[in-house]
Design brief:
There is one protein chain. Among the domains are: 77 residues, Phosphorylase Kinase, domain 1 (2-Layer Sandwich); 187 residues, Transferase(Phosphotransferase), domain 1 (Orthogonal Bundle), CATH 1.10.510. Helices cover 47% and strands 7% of the residues. The strands form three sheets. It has a five-stranded antiparallel beta sheet. A hairpin with a 3-residue loop joins β8 and β9. It comes from Saprolegnia diclina (strain VS20).
Length: 712
Amino acid sequence: MGVRDWFGLGDESKLAQAAGAGDLSLVTSLLATGVNANGICLGVPALYKAVVANHAAIARLLVEAGANPDSPTWTKAVPLVAAVIRGHTSCAALLIEAGASLDVLDRRGDSPLYIAADGGYADIVRLLVLGHANVNLCNATGQSPLFTAALHGYTAIVQDLLAADANYDCANQLGQTPLLAAAMAGRKEVVALLLLAGAKIDHCNDFGHSAVFLAVYKGHVDVVAQLVAASANVNLANDEGCTPLFIAAKRGLRDAVKLLLDAGASTHLSDKSQNTPLLMAANGGYTEIVSLLIAAKADVNQPNQSKDTPLIWAADRGHAPVVQCLLAAKVNANHCNTAGRSALLVAARGGHVPVVELLLVVTADINKADINGETAIYTAARRGHVAVVKLLVAAGANTHLPDKVNPLTIARQNGHHTTVRALLTAQKAQLSALKPPVLCLVKLGRGRYGDVWKSSYLGHTVAIKTMYPSNDAAFLSTLDRAQQLDCPHLARYHGIVHSANGTHRVAIEYVDGGSVRDYLVKLQRRERTSTSTVAVAVAAARGLAALHTAGLEHGRFTASNIFLSTTAVAKLTDYCLDDASLWARTSAPEVLAGSSPTSAADIYAFGLFLVEMETRQAPFPELHDIDVMAGVKQGTLQPQCSASCAPWYRNLVLACVQIDPKRRPTAADVLQCLESNAKLAMPRLGLCTHQEGTRRFLNHVLEPRKTKTTRV
């Protein structure tokens, strides 16, 4: 080759240019005149140009004319690498047949086989394997062709490489094997091939990550299931002490958590900071996972290095459902971390009203101070959380503290004027709300906010219930509207008998027959009763219809809030009082998903009530509240009537518990259905068979209603 050819002026240069341009006629003519087949133009051989342009016929002419299949460019690039990079199978086959070096490396240290495997060129991989290319030749980072094929999920290539005895446990510079790469990338089919070939299932990389760990970390639950089924060790921890269960709980991967627990994952293993899976799930607000871990015997009181417990973290972040779940598991509500802060204190600091309410119910120590002497009411006042301040004051928090930690002082300093007014009222009459000017005669039980008493008010026998709502104005407005209702199936609200410091004592009509829940217990015991369950259902529907007609929602419709009456069969009570945004096992799916409660949510609860009336037990009795709420929210739980239930009754239940609230009937629709089918209900359901029961049923249910017009 002369200087003219190097600069593109000679015949050899013309040959290279013609090869790159695909001019078969000119290439043939030049070769026929004896031009060297290894001709170069500007440092690039004719064969290389033909391969890059995928002119296979010209490449064959050049090879047959004596072109060197390994002739490099001035940058040391060879034709085979160029063909493989571009996926030019015909050119690659020609070069392999011509004896090109199969293990030559490109500038990055990648072999043709690695490049083909990385690009997913299965045909070229097969050609190279058949040509006896080194299947275990790794690149500069230690990655083999099998590794990159596994990473990208090229199943056919993996099969060919395994058939050629590729090392399935060959690790790269970071200790990653093909199995780890496939698990991390979620390549289920490749994982199956590697496991079948005998890959080490419990191998860990240089960071201590196993295949199970990486599959969980990337959220590939199907691969986790695959590895668990192959008996992978689910308790291998990484260098930070994190196990697959820890990661699954931290990331909220419920299905992965269940798989790992079923495979024997330990709930007690912690990371280097002594954080447990339960701590991480509580921190993330993953209620279903918290429930699963508790069911697997996780220690609900196990703290981390800072002595924080799952309850403290959940309270700090305002995860009320998680707090409910932990409290149900008998967690220590008064445990303090190294800073001396309890769950109540951190919840008050964050202004998390529902969490504060829950903790007050379990009698958390309201005046417990941290290492700086700060109490829950101080930290709430400091941040202007007036609703929390009112709750704490009503529950008896001490407001007479030294200036350094005095809630009134800090509220003034920070300009929280509403909080200042609430605290001034409290200091004038600390706890006066708990000493109302009515005589409490008989203790009836305990509600969420305190004891419920039987008393006398304005000539009426009443039940006195304590309330301390987070929003006074809204509560009083709703209560005023509820007082205007005149329906025999609604317990009458006689008014507020006493208010102070954010606490209100409400006088509610005393209903003498006990709750429907107690009535159903009697039926379970086969005790004789004279009240028809259908009559109760009709009465409850009438009460609910009256509420909805007035534009009000019950908010807490359950069998415990329906009381039997000797004058009206049954009456609804506790309507419009409790915060319906707090979740319960009777909450509708949309409420559990975060929507505000509506009349449609009441209808959903009514459907559950109908099931309870017919089966004589609450739906899903074998499940924990948290599991019920999780299933309802996901739409996987559907309440079921008994096999002997009347079809009309079953259809009514199904209509009430529709997932879509827009598809549920109105209270008026429910009432009409119950009344129109009432005459058939007793013999079909077998709910009341003796003469007295039949007479009472007909008198209370089938006679024309004598209710007055609802006043709003």
